[in-house]
Write a structure and sequence with these properties.
Length: about 170
Amino acid sequence: MEATNNAPADFSTEREITVDSFTIRVYGILMDDKRRVLLSDEFIRGDYFTKFPGGGMEFGEGTRDCLRREFMEETGLDVTIGDHIYTTDYFQISAFNKKNQIVSIYYYAHANGPINVVTKTTPFDFTPEQVSDPKGQSEVLRWVEWDELTEETVNLPIDKIVVRMLKGAVEK
């Protein structure tokens, strides 16, 4: 099997950044029976991001435990964690802390019951109260049709790689 380099095209191995820690983040790809993918639109410290549901691993957790907890916190859904999709295989600085390296791990997620989550239809459809504090944080969920999911749908560089991989796997 030929090795691949998933680093973004603008990736450089020469770094002038001093990294003093790293974070492990775990994300899930949840698709419903209508072939829609669940995304999270987030407002974090004045910036807007669209990403897959998931978040940071805590001490004492495994990756699958982390993702189950994150899904419960973000969506209220009890999920079973499926197959592994991707783990970051290149150096990536966190979008939230420029002294922090991030390693992201992606799995398929499967709801253990009906998917009853409050979702929006428009990206970043926040109430004024949700985005009034520039240092605050808020999120809303949104379904995206499979055929409309592209690398441009998500903001984080590793999410873009995962979209490309998912689309490539299905279209083969």
